[in-house]
């Protein structure tokens, strides 16, 4: 018998329309007023991008700025040109953040013998149809293959394309490959930096270069709206902890997904309301168990009470 008696919530269509209109108005205002600096991570002049409210739109603005197709972008990092997976652009950007764009480089195909159940990969995606490797576990199958690196885009498993799939789908496909099987990964690595000390130019806003030092962020909401929010210490710790649970459960890393889960529980008073909010959103397709939802709720309540450590 399920722990939670989950019932769909019927919403008034007029209320939904009013909320959506308010989101759209705010979205337009945000896009018009904010301008971000960017560079290609392997080296380029500094560009300016604005008028976007989600990752796909951001990629298109960057592509327009540098005159290349947006599907060449693998991912972006904030405030560093290096492939630092702790600095990935996810569902939010600090208002002072500098965007570095990592583009498609050399393709490569590697045959892998699955000698253990776990390959040792943590997978994330760029929010625009590309999954890539965020972490490789030490002494794992993948760690012993020198041709595979953090940042590589997983384009195909055998002959099946992974483009357009979410990271949890790719992680499940790799997990479901039987032990003892030999399979082929087609990967695309990011273009390597042409020089090692590339740094963004000083901001034209009249102050010295100091990136990512503000608390205000532009957050891409799940409903498509962009909103400026102030990041709190409790939300940061809670979201980081939720992301750790996702990695342990699913083998994925997704700050955006963790943020969405946090937001579903942010204003809830008990675990049953939180479970209903999960079930009445697109998070339902992940099939979280009751035990996992209780674990997530525990993280949220601990973060609110200040019991989580960095």
Automatic annotation (TrEMBL):
UniProt xrefs under InterPro entries: GH2_GIPC, GIPC1-3_GH1, GIPC1/2/3, PDZ, PDZ_sf
One Pfam match: GIPC1_GH2
Basic and acidic residues bias: start-end ranges: 11-25
Region ranges (Disordered): 1-25
Occurrences of domain PDZ (ranges): 109-189
Similarity remark: Belongs to the GIPC family.
Name by which UniProt lists this protein: PDZ domain-containing protein
Organism classification: Eukaryota, Metazoa, Ecdysozoa, Arthropoda, Hexapoda
């Amino acid at each position: 018998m399920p722990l939670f008696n989950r019932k769909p919530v019927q919403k008034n269509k007029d209320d939904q329309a009013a909320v959506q209109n308010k989101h759209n108005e705010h979205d337009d205002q945000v896009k018009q007023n904010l301008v971000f600096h960017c560079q290609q991570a392997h080296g380029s002049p500094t560009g300016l991008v604005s008028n976007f409210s989600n990752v796909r739109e951001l990629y298109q603005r960057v592509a327009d700025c540098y005159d290349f197709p947006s599907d060449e972008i693998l991912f972006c990092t904030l405030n560093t040109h290096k492939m630092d997976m702790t600095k990935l652009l996810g569902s939010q950007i600090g208002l002072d953040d500098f965007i570095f764009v990592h583009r498609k480089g050399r393709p490569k195909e590697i045959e892998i013998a699955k000698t253990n159940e776990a390959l040792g990969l943590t997978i994330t995606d760029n929010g625009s149809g590309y999954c890539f490797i965020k972490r490789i576990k030490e002494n794992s199958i993948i760690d012993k293959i020198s041709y595979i690196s953090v940042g590589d885009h997983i384009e195909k498993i055998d002959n099946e394309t992974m483009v357009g799939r979410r990271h949890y789908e790719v992680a499940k496909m790799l997990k479901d490959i039987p032990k003892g099987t030999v399979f082929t990964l087609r990967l695309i690595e990011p273009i390597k930096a042409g020089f090692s000390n590339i740094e963004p130019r000083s901001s034209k806003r009249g102050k010295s270069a100091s990136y990512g030092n503000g608390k205000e962020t532009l957050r891409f909401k799940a409903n498509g709206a962009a909103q400026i929010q102030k990041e709190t210490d409790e939300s940061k710790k809670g979201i980081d902890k939720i992301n750790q649970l996702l990695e342990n459960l699913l083998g994925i890393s997704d700050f955006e997904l963790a943020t969405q889960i946090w937001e579903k529980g942010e204003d809830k008073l008990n675990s049953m309301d939180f479970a209903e909010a999960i079930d009445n959103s697109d998070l339902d397709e992940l099939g979280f168990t009751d035990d996992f939802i209780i674990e997530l709720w525990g993280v949220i309540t601990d973060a609110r009470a200040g019991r989580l450590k960095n």
